[in-house]
Amino acid sequence: METTLAETPRKRQVVFLVILLFLWEAGSEAVRYSMPEETESGSFVGNLAKDLGLRVGELATRGARIHYRGNKQPLQLDIKTGDLLLYEKLDREVLCGATDPCILQFQLLLEKPVQFFQADLQLTDINDHSPEFLDREMLLKIPENVQPGTVFPLKTAQDLDIGSNTVQNYSISPNPHFHVVTHNFGDGRKYPELVLDKALDREEQPELSLTLTALDGGAPPRSGTTALRIEVLDINDNAPEFLQSLYEAQVLENSPLNSLVVTVSARDSDAGTYGNVTYTLFQGNEVTQPFEIDEITGDIRLKRALDFEATQYYNMQIAATDGGGLSGKCSVAIRVLDVNDNAPELTLSKVASSTPENSPETVVAVFSVSDPDSGDNGRMVCSIQDDIPFLLKPTFKNFYTLVTERPLDRESRAEYNVTITVTDMGTPRLKTQHNITLLVSDVNDNAPAFTQTAYTLFLRENNSPALHIGSVSATDRDAGANAQLTYSLLPPRDPRLPLASLVSINADNGHLFALRALDFEALQAFEFRVGATDRGSPALSSQALVRVQVLDANDNAPFVLYPLQNGSAPCTELVPRAAEPGYLVSKVVAVDADSGQNAWLSFQLLKATEPGLFGVWAHNGEVRTARLLSERDAAKHRLLVLVKDNGEPALSASVTLHVLLVDGFSQPYLPLPEAAADPAQADPLTVYLVIALASVSSLFLFSVLAFIAVRLCRRSRAAWVGGCSVPEGHLPGHLVDVTGTGTLSQSYQYEVCLTGGSGNEFKFLKPIIPNLPPQGAIKETEGNTTFQSNFGFN
DSSP 3-state assignment of 714? Predict the structure, then answer.
């Protein structure tokens, strides 16, 4: 991107004339002050605020400052009072040289908002320099036959002052032969000429010594003197004559020393020494003359470097003198041509070290450019790189502002190196570059972002409190406090979830902790939300979902549902002796509160009264007969079944089954002693049943009493189960399990136990409803004699 002061239309070029459009910001005209040179520092110049129509307090609030081209600051501004004061003594001759008037231009810069005011300070000259002659003595050779009224040119005195304070008059010490006449150059300077009043006589006085005095017009006036020695020569009647009365020449300011500028030439018609001409350079416009002349050839050469920006023109007088003392004169005008030997200068008035992001049209820097060259050599173009979001805008004369072109994004780029290039239009082109490093300050424009939208954490139950279960993490693209995050638990969507007592989060790093031991059986999983909030203003936040999955541990032993083991009278399973192998005696039903393989149950027969008679299926807990029953098998059996889960380590429970072998389900049996321990707690229904059976069957019982007694004696060697003796007898045929597998609906019709104690007790479990199979099923069962070999038992 580029802004130019040239007239050629280019992108981002600004013609100098366009800058005049901004002068309305600085007021309608410049404020001018005047002050004598060499005034003491701190002297009052004027009240700038009052002269510009500004309030005194406005200077301080708007960041007023004085801008002056160059490194020195000749003035200072008291922003509290608006007074403009001298910063140091000012020497008009140093600052302006021979230029008149001597005007120092400066600008008042207001930063908030940016506004410029033009002001000038004119330094008036005081008479602080005396006239000085370059030579301490001037020698004139005058023939004795020169007629009165003849004029002889004299060298001028130099006075650095200007106006009336420079040389105004020349005088010579009193003598009878000469007087001095003071003349004016076209530019107002004075030069002296010696006029002969009375003819000279070499024989009477061959030499005169006079004093030439230069007097300026100051108050009081200052003067300077030089000695004037006049030699009276013999007669020479032809004076030298120049071919031209005015010689004009041009010289480049970068011409090398001793280079030829111009050659003057004069002729003398006399012969001998009176015809030999010597050239003398009489006067110039500077104390130190940059030119010299060859007194023989008349070549004018450069003896000191020229500077177009300091002096553009030189005027001098050349005198040609012959050997007889006669002389002629001519003028030489030399014009210094400008070359592009000065690079543009850039002066920063304001520069910001940082600028906030997301702020368009922000002023970053204010600067001015200048080039002391002239013409195209002094026209300048300002530009910056094309790949940065900044613009150069002209504001006032040669002032520019560097502003942001669009909102900046610190997260994309946090630092910019802006190179301001000022190039002139001369040949060759010279340029000046200035680098500005600009930092983009952060604005909280990015919300925190979690690394995952949802987190799943696994926690085994029975954990220790304050256990670290996982972490959540979020990042923020901002910087500083805007990127410092605070983690928190958000209120659960389910108000019944006691989240505050379950987990906690570390606000600094997002670590999650379980506050108490969890129970898989009570809570298998729960969800909650976590938030991440930065510390910007305003603060920004985001959320993530966390799901905690509680893993099961084998912390629950199997629980037996059937048969119940609650300390009451044990339940005895009735098995007919005619049961086939694989007959279902009972089924152990157990559950495990755990899940998965921790709840996989297996069954095992640990202990039996008669091993090999019964078996337990490992997977379903069914207790079945392993072989055919015989008369020699004991009537009562006690089975200890182990129920074990598949956890690690495995947990187990045991249950005891009581099995009673009967010939028929109608035959009463003696209950176990522990079942009859408390007759007072017997079921009233049992009492009623005993009474009813006793009244109905009394005759039958007495008739078979003897037969039962014999049978009991013969089976005295049989095993006792629970301390009960089991009477032997055949059950009615219609109650025999003819299916070969046995069912609970037939074998649990009723239980009859005869005790040796207080009497008989009958316990009805279910209504006595026979469940007889069809006749075909009976025949089919009789043929199944190999049932036992078809099952596997434990």
Answer: helix
DSSP H helices, 334-383, are none
| pLDDT score, position 697 | 67
Query: What string of H, E and C letters represents the secondary structure of 297-343?
Result: CCEEEECCCCCCCCCCEEEEEEEEECCCCCEEEEEEEEEEECCCCCC
- The CATH class for the domain spanning 137-233 reads mainly beta
CA distance 625 to 302: 141
Contacts of 683 (CB under 8 A, 6+ apart): 763
Q: Is 260 helix (H, G, I), strand (E, B) or coil?
A: strand
Tokens 């480049």 belong to residue: 252
- Specify which residues 334 forms β-bridges with: 249, 314
CB atoms within 10 A of CB 451: 12
Q: Which overall architecture, per CATH, does domain 31-124 show? A: Sandwich (2.60)
Q: What is the CATH number of domain 345-441?
A: 2.60.40.60
Helix, strand, coil percentages (3-state) for the chain, rounded to 5, are 15, 40, 45
Phi, psi of 266, deg, nearest 5 = -130, 150
Q: Domain segments of the chain: what residues?
A: 31-124, 137-233, 241-337, 345-441, 449-551, 559-662
The three-class DSSP label of residue 16 is helix
Identify the CATH assignment for 449-551 out of 2.60.40.60, 1.10.340.30, 3.40.50.720, 3.30.830.10: 2.60.40.60
Topology given in CATH for the domain delimited by 241-337: Immunoglobulin-like (2.60.40)
Instruction: Give the Cα separation of 469 and 484 in Å (integer).
Output: 23
**Whole-number pLDDT of residue 279:** 93
Taking the CA of residue 591 as centre, how many other CA atoms within 13 Å lie in the half-sphere pointing to its CB?
4
CATH number of 559-662: 2.60.40.60
Sheet holding 2-4, edge to edge: 2-4, 380-383, 415-424, 431-441, 354-356
DSSP 538-551: S--EEEEEEEEEEE
Cβ neighbors of 94 (< 8 A, separation 6 or more) are none
Helical (H) or strand (E) element with 93 = helix 92-96
- Structure tokens of 625? 């007969």
Bond before 220 cis per omega within 30 degrees: yes
3-state secondary structure 198-241: CCCCCCCCCEEEEEEEEEECCCCCCEEEEEEEEEEECCCCCCCE
Q: What distance separates the 2 farthest-apart alpha carbons in the chain?
A: 212
Q: What is the mean pLDDT of each run of 10 residues along the chain (794 residues)?
A: 38 36 46 84 83 80 80 79 83 78 83 83 81 88 87 86 82 92 81 90 85 88 91 79 93 91 89 85 68 92 88 89 87 90 87 83 89 87 90 88 88 88 90 90 89 93 91 91 92 88 93 92 91 91 94 88 72 86 91 88 91 90 90 88 90 91 61 42 57 68 70 54 37 34 36 36 37 36 35 38
Q: What is the pLDDT of residue 716?
A: 55
3-state secondary structure of 726: coil
Dist CA 210 CA 516 (whole Å) = 123
Total-model pTM: 0.50
Type of residue found at 729: G
User: Fold identical between 241-337 and 449-551?
Assistant: yes
The size of the chain, in residues, is: 794
Q: How far apart are CA 729 and CA 664, in angstroms?
A: 7
Alpha helices in 398-447 (DSSP H): none
